[in-house]
Amino acid sequence: MPEAQRQHSSTAPTDEELRTLDAHWRAANYLAAGQIYLLANPLLTEPLRPEHIKPRLLGHWGTSPGLNLVHTHLNRVIKARDLDALCIWGPGHGGPSVLANSWLEGSYGEKYPDVTRDAQGMELLLRQFSFPGGVPSHIAPEVPGSIHEGGELGYSLAHAYGAALDHPGLLVACVIGDGEAETGPLAGSWHANKFLDPVHDGAVLPILHLNGYKIANPTVLSRLPEAELDALLRGYGHEPIHVGGDDPATVHRAMAQAMDTALDRIAEAQHAAREEGVTERPHWPVIVLRTPKGWTGPAEVDGEPVEGTWRSHQVPLAEVRDNPEHLRQLEAWLRSYRPEELFDAEGRPVADVLACVPEGTKRLGATPYANGGLLVRDLPVPSLDDFAVPVDKPGTTTHEPTRVLGDLLARVMRDTATRRDFRLVGPDETASNRLQAVYDASGKAWQAGTLPEDEHLDRHGRVMEVLSEHLCQGWLEGYLLTGRHGLFSCYEAFVHIVDSMVNQHIKWLRTSRRLPWRAPIASLNYLLTSHVWRQDHNGFSHQDPGFVDHVLNKSPEVVRVYLPPDANTLLSVADHALRSRDYVNVIVAGKQPCFDWLSMDEARVHCARGAGIWDWAGTEDGLREPDVVLACAGDVPTQEVLAAAHLLRRHLPELAVRVVNVVDLARLLPEKEHPHGMNDFEYDGLFTTDKPVIFAYHGYPWLIHRLAYRRAGHQNLHVRGYKESGTTTTPFDMVVRNDLDRYRLVMDVIDRVPGLAVRATAVRQRMADARTRHHAWIRERGTDLPEVAEWTWNA
């Protein structure tokens, strides 16, 4: 197995090599500053005039020189050691640097042929930055070589570890801004090295960039004494290597030495694990890079210090078009990089600038690891018939849906054992969520100490469990974006912790879909279980079904939400999700025993429709329209709707009842608003235009109203769902507390079908009395009424 960092036997870089490294760095700095300011005159072939300057100055200079230094020195070691490498750029607005470097190495022009590597292309590169119709100020899908959205801080190191998993020959460098290092997710991510397998995984090289300031305040880590910071990083399991200063020549020499030292240590650790069988967890290197914020920029502006202070964070000279002194300073700043030495008369980078740049796909902007769709292979999902539960009659047998799914996931895990491109992640809940069958195929990744009573820990495992939803999400995103597959299993209430992370990933996918050079990646799949309706021993704190609401606010071409009502429909939905590309699939399914409603063949057909009539459950005779539609979405709501239909069949046999089950929630949207949406003819045919619709929904009721508010029969739609009423109680009491129970649904039918309120008064009273009996019963006995607990469809 290849070591990601091959031992390097050459001596320290010569003065000539350092000179060319500095030339590359200066060229990148020039282009980064130019992107913030210049509309025209990219090579400064004439004195700067106000019309050469952008009317709105946007961008972030402060972090750019440090990022350019890292990029330059990564180029050197990649070329010298023939490495496959990827870099995660953590600082939020490092766009100018990575764009500049991808242009210099030529990868940008390969993706955008009009941005040529000459004066004309340089002008376009500078103009498009933070300009209408151009590119964002941060790292984004448009930037070659990127997998990390720079719009929100805290996730770079988790993404880096996710990218390294199961890529044994890959070096993943990760630049961590010192402002970003203050976030909770980043702080938790330092523990990811306890899960990195030096045999089967690649290496992560964190580079903590301390430039001292955030937008307006100092950063915590930059103000720690070096000994205290060292102790912190060593406590995290790293060996720090320090680089610092403000003299470029000194810093270049120290950075080159630090890179070589770090990569040699990584190579030694990988060789020891892979060739010598060493199982002790390595203490991986981390580079601590201290350089001034806004390094090489204006030292002072309007009498205030700028370089090395928070004032250099964004635009150091803010009045260039209107203030002649600012314009003079900008020209002096740009000319200090000596662009005439860096670019020839046609604007092409000279040989010295490109001396450190690797070839072909070794370039950071051209690596296929940053375009994971080029690497992804179809997942070997087995036949569902091997795992389906038999259903001779609906509603007579029960299974735990997620346990059934666990058997299928175990097969997938087993069938990918040699190719190692599927992982299951979750916050300490795999067994709790009834997916423990996967342990028969792979243990839990773990590189820290073990005790005799531990179970299923495995240095080479591909089940990832850590009690940080942020870290689970970051790992899986990095894993998917570099060409692999996975699933995130989580308690429904706590997946909200990653609300903003999934938002960023959805935005990434939406933008990537519009870039022809970005190949589709495997979908991000969520399995949300331990859900709101079955929190028998956890209670109110564990009840929140709102993640679905959050996701359905996002890009319709990306998001999908499924609520399978039983084990076989869960298998069908999971099969679709695991095979899909470029989606975020949210699957909500219970782990407690649930009635089996559909055979595997019926489940496939029903899931393909996304929503459909269950003829066997209703009392329509096919000759007339139904008097009422009972609709449901979710496993517990489906059970209560069918129990209500059962009661109506017994007590009001003359009533024509239609039962509709919705698996794919987006089907309720109009087809113009979501690719899975129904047209009005389909919707009206299913729900009617003028009959009452009693809809029992898994989550917050108003979501169904929002999805269907444009439909002709919306005024007849009455939704029952979760309304923030819960505690530790019996399963049926949860639905009673939220008015989702079968008795309340029957009462809703009587209240809303014209003429029934008078004719069925006695039935309604009987339903209300049953709810009263329920309250007394559970308080005396602690269990549900026998008529509820022992109910089956065919009783």
In short:
By secondary structure, this protein is an alpha/beta fold.
How would you characterize the overall build of this protein?
With 795 residues, the protein is of the alpha/beta class. The protein folds into 3 domains: 17-370, Rossmann fold, CATH 3.40.50.970; 374-594, Thiamin diphosphate (ThDP)-binding fold, Pyr/PP domains (Rossmann fold, 3-Layer(aba) Sandwich); 613-790, Rossmann fold (3-Layer(aba) Sandwich), CATH 3.40.50.920. 37% of the residues lie in helices and 13% in strands. It contains 26 helices and 22 strands. The strands form 6 sheets. It has a 6-stranded parallel sheet with strand order 12-9-13-14-16-15, sandwiched between helices. Helix 1 crosses helix 2 (64-81), helix 1 (15-37) crosses helix 5 (119-128) and helix 2 crosses helix 9 (248-275). The protein is elongated and about 95 Å long. The mean pLDDT is 95.
Spatial gap, N to C terminus: 61 Å
* Radius of gyration computed on alpha carbons: 30 Å
CATH domain class name of the largest domain: Alpha Beta
CATH topology of the largest domain: Rossmann fold
Poorly predicted sequence stretches spanning 5 or more consecutive residues: none
Instruction: Please state roughly what percent of the residues sit in beta strands, choosing from under 5%, 5-15%, 15-25%, 25-35%, 35-45% or over 45%.
Output: 5-15%
Annotation, overall tally of beta strands: 22
- The CATH homologous superfamily name of the largest domain equals Thiamin diphosphate (ThDP)-binding fold, Pyr/PP domains
Average pLDDT = 95
Q: Which structural category fits the helices and strands?
A: alpha/beta
Spatial strand arrangement across the major sheet: 12-9-13-14-16-15
Percent of residues in helical segments?
Answer: 25-40%
